[in-house]
Automatic annotation (TrEMBL):
Biological process annotations from GO: regulation of intracellular pH; sodium ion import across plasma membrane
A Pfam family hit: Na_H_Exchanger
Residue ranges occupied by any Cation/H+ exchanger transmembrane domain in the UniProt entry: 13-413
Record GO cellular component, one term: plasma membrane
Subcellular location: Cell membrane
Keyword vocabulary terms for this entry: Antiport, Cell membrane, Ion transport, Membrane, Sodium, Sodium transport, Transmembrane, Transmembrane helix, Transport
Topology within the bilayer: Multi-pass membrane protein
GO molecular function, one term: potassium:proton antiporter activity
Keyword Iron-sulfur in record: no
Family recorded in the similarity comment: Belongs to the monovalent cation:proton antiporter 1 (CPA1) transporter (TC 2.A.36) family.
Organism: Bifidobacterium pullorum subsp. gallinarum
Membrane-spanning ranges: 53-69, 81-103, 152-177, 183-205, 240-257, 269-292, 312-335, 356-381, 393-412
Task of the protein: Na(+)/H(+) antiporter that extrudes sodium in exchange for external protons.
Protein name listed in UniProt: Na+/H+ antiporter
Length: 691
């Protein structure tokens, strides 16, 4: 029961970290998760954390390495393969040797083999941490490609080196010739085993799909089980490196993501979603566990009278310095000797290239794999004695992880600052890509019942894409967006005046008056919600505006409901039907559009706005007016448009999800994500106009 409770608590902390990260944009998600893990240890209902090292390797490392190899950009990987391999193999070995001799020399109580194991574990970098930390820094695609490729390959080399170092520390016997022979067999055997399994699995899934036997459930389950089964088979049956087998298979396997038809697309979408959730959960769980294990490991080492606390802190700082210095010198040397792809000549180290070396140095923090390896250190040696300095080694590795994460979190934005300003042409192209992905997602959700409504929304997105393509040429999107926002304020003022008039002048027809008030309040809620999201605010002001707006909207809806109930009880006026409200809202929209059109004609003759911007927005509002006037009055037509409104709101959620996915994948920066979210609300004016 304690194990089940622990799993639930860790997952709850992972979910909480995903929310907290949104409110702490300057702090990376791994650091937030580590802090949550530390806090969790002081809660009374959290059970003690004890993990089987072998289970930890299978449960966390195997699927994470498989997914990392499967998702990496193969073309970009091959372009930067030489640099990545140099860092993954050469730098990993150099780091293992340098850290090993440094730690053993500075603290002789740590055996040399155990110190080598610490150095080997500190060789791998964490690609997920790089992706999350890079949101605030402007890393180039080549830098990201090198870092991700390095993380993929140095995982395997670091793990193999770690395993042999631990074997020497446990048995007390180390033969270089025997170790080299076993290393070659394990390395080559694991690679060949993974490639063979990958070929078989590819053929199997192609056959299953061609026979029509594939279902979403079987496909996802087989994908999920593959890295676990592959790792266990390689280690226990073939007696080769399970890590290398997983990496090789992940690079080769494709699960036949090609095909035609909604079932294939739906299966691929579900597969990507499941893996995204699993990856975030596993990585989050590792950092949560790191935070949970830190206090216990620190207290045992800190309170041990035989261990010098200043020595612990000194070793952490020394090891971190050695790791960072080795990495910087190695990266700089690689950049110096690497030939230019176009000229074939070696380039001198300019200030920009030194900055790139610093970016790639601090952009390689330690994380998941390092902690996972350290937790696999056995408790006892072959002679039955306690493994020497096990807690201290884990403590040192954890300290170096935190140091490198902190340096990456706060130094990367200084070395490669994200200016926060995006080229208008680039952000427009990204917006078009988001809209296209939204259309693809909406296409997968078409059913016989919602077909008409979804096609209406898709048509509005198609028009938005067309207009964005037309604006790429020479129109400033920021100025146009500001005009859109101002036009919304004009609509808001018009509706507020109409609402005040209705309330101040009682009508003999109470039903008609209530209908007008309901229509005004609905339109006002929609406009205010758009303005709250579209306008520029600081974080605190934006949150306050959101709360105030929600309260006012709730008050208006409560008042409307109260009026309906009173009217029903007194039987003075009949309750308002949804078709009547929809028809009145449509009529009010037409009047508001005419008001904005007249205002735009006045602004064209002025100097406040660009004439081109006013002309473009006039076309949008004219198109909206024509669309509204062409709608059927009530009945089935109104029901279809009501459903279209629901689909439209769902499409906004899809857009937000796509933007978040692109941000988490490192495809866009935080500033771009913020601008895209703002555009979802600003450009919703165009979508409303087209419906």
């Amino acid at each position: 029961m304690d194990t089940f409770t622990l799993i639930l608590c860790v997952l709850a902390a992972v979910v909480l970290s995903s929310f907290l990260s949104r409110f702490l944009p300057k702090i990376s998600t791994p650091l937030v998760q580590i802090a949550l893990g530390v806090l969790a240890t002081y809660l009374p209902f959290f059970p003690d954390t004890e993990l089987d090292p072998e289970l930890f390797m299978v449960l966390f490392i195997a699927p994470l390495l498989y997914l990392e190899a499967h998702e990496i950009d193969k073309s970009a990987l091959f372009k930067s393969l030489k640099i990545s391999l140099s860092l993954a193999i050469g730098l990993a070995i150099a780091t293992m040797v340098a850290v090993g001799f440094t730690v053993h020399t500075f603290w002789p109580a740590i055996p040399l083999a155990a110190a080598f194991a610490l150095g080997a574990a500190l060789g791998p970098t964490d690609a997920v941490a790089v992706s999350s930390l890079g949101k605030e820094a402007a890393l180039t695609q080549r830098q990201l490609s090198v870092l991700k490729g390095e993380s993929l390959f140095n995982d395997a080399s670091g793990i193999v080196g770690f395993q042999f170092s631990i074997l020497a520390a446990v048995t007390g016997v180390f033969s270089f010739g025997e170790a080299a022979g076993e290393f070659v067999v394990s390395f080559i055997g694991g690679t060949l085993f993974g490639l063979a399994v990958g070929l078989v699995v590819n053929w199997l899934f192609e056959t299953i799909r061609s026979l029509g036997w594939e279902t979403t459930t079987t496909r996802i389950l087989m994908e999920l089980f593959l890295p676990f089964l592959l790792y266990l088979a390689a280690e226990d049956i073939a007696h080769v490196s399970g890590i290398l087998a997983v990496v090789a298979c992940g690079l080769l396997i494709r699960f036949d993501h090609t095909g035609i038809g909604p079932n294939v697309a739906r299966t691929n979408i579900v597969s990507s979603s499941v893996w995204a959730v699993l990856s975030f959960s596993l990585n989050g769980a590792v950092f949560i566990l790191l935070g949970m294990l830190l206090p216990d490991a620190m207290s045992r080492s800190w309170e041990d009278p035989g261990v010098s606390n200043p020595m612990l802190i000194s070793v952490i700082l020394l090891v971190a310095l050695v790791v960072i210095a080795m990495r910087f010198l190695w990266v700089a040397a690689v950049l110096r000797v690497t030939k230019d792809q176009h000229t074939g000549r070696r380039r001198r180290m300019t200030p920009e290239r030194w900055r790139s070396a610093a970016v790639m140095t601090f952009g390689g923090p330690k994380g998941t794999i390092t902690l996972s390896l350290m937790l696999t250190i056995p408790f006892f040696t072959a002679a039955g004695d306690l493994f020497p300095m096990r807690d201290e080694l884990i403590f040192i590795a954890s300290g170096v992880i935190i140091v490198t994460l902190l340096l990456a979190n706060f130094l990367l934005p200084l070395i490669a600052p994200n200016r926060g300003t995006d080229d208008s042409h680039e952000i427009t192209e990204i917006t078009i890509d988001v809209l296209r992905r939204t259309v693809e997602e909406l296409t997968q959700r078409i059913t016989p019942e919602n077909r008409r409504a979804v096609l209406m929304v898709i048509d509005s997105y198609t028009k938005r894409i067309t207009r964005l393509k037309q604006r790429i040429g020479g129109v400033d999107p920021h100025g146009f967006e500001q005009l859109q926002i101002d036009a919304l304020y004009w609509e808001k003022d018009f509706i507020k005046e109409r609402l005040a008039t209705l309330r101040a002048q009682p009508s003999p027809d109470g039903h008609d008056r209530d209908l007008g008030i309901e229509a005004c309040e609905r339109m006002l809620d929609q406009i205010m919600d758009t303005l709250r999201h579209a306008a520029d605010h600081d974080s605190s002001g934006h949150a306050v505006s959101q709360i105030r707006g929600r309260v006012r909207a709730l008050q208006r809806r409560t008042q409307a409901l109260t009026r309906r109930v009173i009217s029903k009880i007194q039987r003075t006026t009949p309750l308002l039907s949804e078709d009547e409200v929809t028809e009145r809202v449509r009529a009010l929209q037409v009047e508001a559009i005419e008001h904005v059109i007249n205002r735009l004609y006045d602004e064209i003759r002025g100097t406040r706005y660009s004439t081109e911007h006013c002309s473009l927005l006039l076309l949008d509002y004219r198109r909206a007016e024509a669309t509204l006037r062409a709608r059927p009055n009530v009945g089935a037509g109104a029901a279809a448009f009501t459903m279209a409104d629901d689909v439209k709101r769902e499409s906004y959620g899809i857009e937000m999800g796509i933007i978040q996915d692109m941000f988490e994948a490192g495809d866009i920066t935080r500033a771009q994500a913020r601008a895209l979210r703002r555009n979802v609300y600003v450009m919703s004016v165009d979508a409303d106009a087209s419906l």
